[in-house]
Specification:
The chain has 15 helices and 22 strands. It is an alpha/beta fold and 583 residues long. A hairpin with a 7-residue loop joins strand 16 and strand 17. The radius of gyration is 24 Å and the shape is globular. The structure holds 1-deoxynojirimycin (NOJ) and calcium ion. The site of 1-deoxynojirimycin (NOJ) has 9 residues, from loops.
C-alpha cells in the first residue's frame, strides 16, 4: 500500500474551459448536490481506433489529445479511455502486462500526461479502464506464479489439481472452451474466465488486493477522476469447486460468485481507495440480476458508484455470436427496469454501444438508407432523455454503422476466430451462416477507425490503419457533419445541451405511457418543477400518437425533424420521428 493521501485531489484548482461544467454539480429540486458523475455525459474512446497521431496506423494519446477540442464542442463532460496499459494484446489491451505503463502502441507516459492535462484545461474528466479480474500471462506476477508451487506469487492466481486427468471442473470461458489450462511445469491447472493468456487473479489473497489498490492510487494521484472496472462481477469465485449443469454451459452461465465475497471485495476496495474522494467507479456488471445490481451500486452500500447492465444488449446476440431479433418490447422493458425509480440509492448507466457490441443504428435503427440518420437521432433522443449517466461510444455521435464483413480474414477479434475454429472448422455451422451472423454481431463493428473526413483512411491515419475502414466514410464522417446543422452530429450536440438545460431529463422519475404499443415508445420524466414527454416512433411507418389523457403540449424542446408545433391531443408521427415536449 502506498499510503498516499488522496484528499489532496480536492485542493486541485478546478479546470475551467470551454463548455466546462462545475465540480459540485448543479442543484436540482429533486437532487440537491448530486455527485459530478450523475450530471455528466460520458464518451468512450477505444484508443486503437480513435486517432493516429504518429502515423503508424494505430490510434494513440497524441491523436486523442488533438481531438479533445472536438469532444469539448460535442459537450461531453468525461471520457472513459478503454484499456490502454502495456499488453501483449491477445485481447486488445484487456490482458495487462504492466498496470503502470502506457501501451507503447498508444505512446508514452508523457503523452498520457499531456492528454490528461489538456482534458483538464477543457473541463473534461477522464476515467481509466482497470482490468482487475485477470492479468496477462506475461505479467510479472504470473510469470513468478507459474514458476513453482512454492513461489510467493503462487497464490496470486487460482491453481488447482485436475480430476482424473481432466480439468478440475467443467467451467467454460466467456470466449469458448475450458476455463482451466494445465501448466505442465508444475502439473496444476490455472483458472481463466477469458483466454488462457488472461489468468484470473485471486482476490481472496489480501496481497493481491493491496497491489491493485496501490495501482488505483497511482493513477488517482496523477489526476484521473475514476475507473471503469472490467469484468468486475467475475472477481469472486465460488468457495468450493463444482460442475455447471449441461444446460448452464451453453447459456453462458458464469461460475462467478455474485454474493457475499463480491460485496466484501468491493467494500474493501471502496474503503481503501474511494472513501472521502470524488472518484467515480463504474463496473462492467455482467451477469448479475437486477437485485444484485441494485445492491452493488446502492450508494449506502459503498461498493461501486454505478455499472453497466447487459440484459438488453445480449438479447440480440444469441450465444454471443448469433443475430437475434430486436423487439421494441424488450427495450421498453429494460428501460423501465433500468430507471431504478424504486431504488433511490441506485444510479444506472445508459448505453447502446461500446467496444464489445455492434453499432446501435445497425441494430435498432432503420435498415432503409433514407431513414438511417433519422433513426440514429431517435436513438440519441432516447439515450439522452433517460435516468442515469449516458455513455456515448466513439462514432455513435456521427451515426457510424456496422462494417460489411464478407470473409473471416477481415475480422480481428479473438472471439470471432475462436468461434470460427470451434463451430465452422469442426463442421457444426456452415461458413455462410457463421459469417452472416458474425457480421451483424461482432465487436469488430465498433472497432473500425473513427471516420473524421472523406480523405485517405477517413482522416484516422496517414498510413494504412490496423483495422479496415468502413467504406461509408465518404458520407458518414465528422468533417461533413460538423458543417451540417441537420446532421446526426449536430443533433447529438443539441440533445446534450437540452439534457443539461432540463435536469428533469437526468434526475426525474420515469413512467412509460405507451406500454402496449409495438411501434411508438413514449415516456414521461417528471420532477417537482417540470414534466416532459418523450415520444419515439421506432418504425418505417407513420403513426398517430394520442397524448396521454388530459395532457397538452406546452412546447417542444427537441425534435429530430424540426417539428415546431403539436396541436390538439394527438400527433401524427413520421417514420423514426422523435420529440421531447414539455407538458
Ligand atoms: C470486457 C471488455 O470490455 C472486453 O473487451 C474484454 O474482452 C473482456 N472484458 C475481458 O477483459
Ligand atoms: Ca499511432
Amino acid at each position: 500500500m502506498t499510503g498516499i493521501d488522496l484528499s489532496r485531489r480536492s485542493l486541485l484548482p478546478l479546470a475551467v474551459g470551454f463548455w466546462a461544467t462545475t465540480s459540485a454539480s448543479a442543484s436540482t429540486p429533486s437532487q440537491p448536490r448530486a455527485p459530478w458523475w450523475k450530471n455528466s455525459v460520458f464518451y468512450e474512446i477505444y484508443p486503437r481506433s480513435f486517432q493516429d497521431g504518429n502515423s503508424d496506423g494505430i490510434g494513440d494519446f497524441i491523436g486523442m489529445k488533438d481531438r479533445l477540442e472536438y469532444l469539448a464542442e460535442l459537450g461531453v463532460d468525461a471520457i472513459w479511455v478503454a484499456a490502454c496499459f502495456d499488453s501483449p494484446n491477445v485481447d486488445n489491451g484487456y490482458d495487462v502486462r504492466d498496470y503502470r505503463k502506457i501501451m507503447p502502441d498508444f505512446g508514452t507516459m508523457a503523452d498520457f500526461d499531456a492528454f490528461l492535462a489538456r482534458a483538464k484545461q477543457l473541463g473534461i474528466r477522464v476515467i481509466l479502464d482497470m482490468v482487475f479480474n485477470h492479468t496477462s500471462d506475461q505479467h510479472r506476477w504470473f510469470i513468478e506464479s507459474r514458476s513453482s508451487r512454492n513461489n510467493r506469487y503462487r497464490d496470486f492466481y487460482h491453481w488447482h489439481d485436475g480430476k482424473n486427468g481432466a480439468p478440475p471442473t467443467n467451467w467454460q470461458t466467456q470466449f469458448g472452451g475450458s476455463a482451466w489450462t494445465l501448466d505442465e511445469k508444475t502439473g496444476q491447472y490455472y483458472l481463466h474466465s477469458f483466454e488462457a493468456q488472461q489468468p484470473d487473479l485471486n482476490w481472496e489473497n489480501p496481497e493481491v488486493r493491496a497491489e491493485l489498490y496501490a495501482i488505483l492510487k497511482f493513477w488517482a494521484n496523477k489526476g484521473v477522476d475514476g475507473f471503469r472496472f472490467d469484468a468486475i462481477t467475475f472477481i469472486a469465485k465460488p468457495e468450493k469447486l463444482y460442475d455447471l449443469t449441461p444446460e448452464e454451459i451453453p447459456a453462458r452461465k458464469t461460475f462467478a460468485d455474485h454474493g457475499d465475497r463480491l460485496s466484501f471485495y468491493l467494500k474493501d476496495m471502496y474503503k481503501h481507495v474511494f472513501k472521502n474522494t470524488d472518484l467515480y467507479s463504474v463496473g462492467e456488471n455482467w451477469g448479475v440480476s437486477r437485485d444484485e445490481y441494485a445492491r452493488i451500486t446502492d450508494s449506502r452500500n459503498k461498493e461501486l458508484s454505478s455499472g453497466f447492465r447487459f440484459d438488453f444488449q445480449i438479447k440480440d446476440n444469441v450465444d454471443a455470436w448469433r443475430k437475434g431479433t430486436f423487439h421494441l418490447s424488450d427495450l421498453r422493458a429494460f428501460n423501465r427496469d433500468n430507471s431504478f425509480d424504486d431504488h433511490p440509492g441506485t444510479w444506472p448507466v445508459v448505453w447502446l454501444e461500446d467496444h464489445d457490441y455492434s453499432r446501435s443504428v445497425s441494430r435498432y435503427g432503420s435498415q432503409r438508407p433514407e431513414y438511417r440518420d433519422r433513426s440514429a437521432k431517435l436513438l440519441a433522443t432516447m439515450m439522452l432523455s433517460l435516468r442515469g449517466t449516458p455513455f456515448i461510444y466513439q462514432g455513435q455521435e456521427i451515426g457510424m454503422t456496422n462494417f460489411p464483413f464478407k470473409s473471416i480474414d477481415q475480422f480481428d477479434d479473438v472471439f470471432a476466430h475462436n468461434e470460427w475454429r470451434l463451430q465452422v472448422e469442426s463442421g457444426h455451422i456452415s461458413s455462410q451462416e457463421m459469417l452472416v451472423n458474425l457480421a451483424a454481431t461482432t465487436r469488430d463493428n465498433t472497432r473500425t477507425p473513427m471516420q473524421w473526413n472523406d480523405g485517405p483512411n477517413a482522416g484516422f491515419s496517414a498510413v494504412k490503419p490496423w483495422m479496415l475502414v468502413n467504406p461509408n466514410f465518404r458520407t458518414t464522417n465528422y468533417s461533413a457533419e460538423s458543417s451540417d446543422p441537420r446532421s446526426v452530429l449536430s443533433f447529438y450536440k443539441k440533445m446534450i445541451r437540452t439534457r443539461k438545460q432540463f435536469p428533469v431529463l437526468i434526475h426525474g422519475t420515469y413512467k412509460d405511457v405507451s406500454p402496449d404499443d409495438s411501434q411508438i415508445y413514449a415516456y414521461i420524466r417528471e420532477d417537482s418543477t417540470n414534466r416532459v414527454l418523450i415520444a419515439l416512433n421506432f418504425s418505417d411507418d407513420e403513426k398517430t400518437f394520442a397524448l396521454p389523457e388530459g395532457e397538452t403540449v406546452k412546447r417542444i424542446i427537441a425534435s429530430n425533424m424540426d417539428r415546431t408545433q403539436i396541436q390538439g391531443s394527438a400527433m401524427r408521427m413520421q417514420p423514426w420521428e422523435s420529440v421531447v415536449v414539455m407538458i
